[in-house]
Amino acid sequence: MSFELEVCIDNIESLSTAISAGATRIELCSSLALGGLTPSFGFMKEAAKQSSIPVYAMIRPRQGDFLFNQQELDIMLNDVEAAKLAGLDGIVIGILKTNGDIDTESCRKLIDRADGMGVTFHRAFDLCREPKTALEEVIHLGCERILTSGLEQSAELGVSMLSELNQQADGRISLMAGAGVNVSNTKMLIQTAKLHEIHLSGKGVRDSLMTFKADKAQMGADDVDDSKVPVTQFDSIAKVREVLDQLS
């Protein structure tokens, strides 16, 4: 049995790193520090051109909750069209109602606009009111998989719920563990919850290649170091790939 290893990235430099380290699918985002937002059209096009594995675009117009108004839904519909036009393989979506149920009507609009592209339901699922009902609704929508931590802060903490949901799914949809996944817990997650897909960023930083450094201006928040560039770390992904291959 082969296991899928999805790596989420928010810059083009990380694409080749993730692929060479053993990723089998890419989740393309901007702003991973905010949980992942929609990537730019240029980023989508370049990733589609360079990638040898499937690339799915995050469709999320802002940080915060997953309750979106009509203007935001219109933006998401346009972004789905952009992902399709860019030549990507799929989209990653998730919309909730005010009461914590899945907004199946809005999700259906995005899926219909995707018109045959693959669809992952993202960790909006972890904020839903009733996960077992939500699971059936996402299955009915026709999504390929749900990215979930089992409704906990990390997949490791949510492994019992992951196992319950996977049993309920019974092969009708794939459960993909995400949040805090690393080489030390991958084997446990796969074996305990009987999963076939793992998701992580393997994020680290590299030093800026700038030889000149401004000593006054700051681009981001006070705790952001502009001399460091967040990138995917080869070893973080490769070590997880090695664990998965050993389990195959």
Q: Could you explain how this protein is built, in words?
A:
The protein is 37% helix and 18% strand. The chain is an alpha/beta fold and 248 residues long. It has one domain: Copper homeostasis (CutC) domain (TIM Barrel). The strands form two sheets. An eight-stranded parallel beta barrel has the order 1-2-3-4-5-6-7-8, surrounded by eight helices. Strands 9-10 form a two-stranded antiparallel sheet. The termini are close together. The model has no long low-confidence stretch (mean pLDDT 96).
Measured between the Cα atoms of the first and last residue, the distance is: 5 Å
Instruction: Give the CATH level 1 class.
Output: Alpha Beta
Q: In percent, how helical is the residue content?
A: 25-40%
Q: Could you please say which CATH topology applies here?
A: TIM Barrel
* Count of DSSP-assigned helices: 8
CATH architecture annotation: Alpha-Beta Barrel
Strand content: 15-25%
Unreliable stretches (pLDDT < 50, length at least 5) are none
Compute the CA-based radius of gyration. 18 Å
